[in-house]
Amino acid sequence: TSFQLARACPLLLFPGCAVDDVINFHVATGGRKTALEGSVDPKILPDTQLGFWVHKFLKSLAEDDRVGLRNHGSSETFYLRDVLAALLVAGSDVQPFFDPLQEMHDCPLELAANRLFKPGLSFDHVLTMVSIYQSRDDDDAMQGLCWLLQGLGHEYSKVRPPRFTRGTWVECNLGGDHWHVGVVADLWCDRFPYEVKLTCGRRVHAPFDDDKIIKKGTQRPLRFKKGDRVLCLMDDGWKRGVIVSFWEHGFPYWVRIEDESSESNFAGVPFDLDDVVQGDIRCTRRRQLE
Question: Do residue 9 and residue 111 come from a single domain?
Answer without folding.
Answer: yes
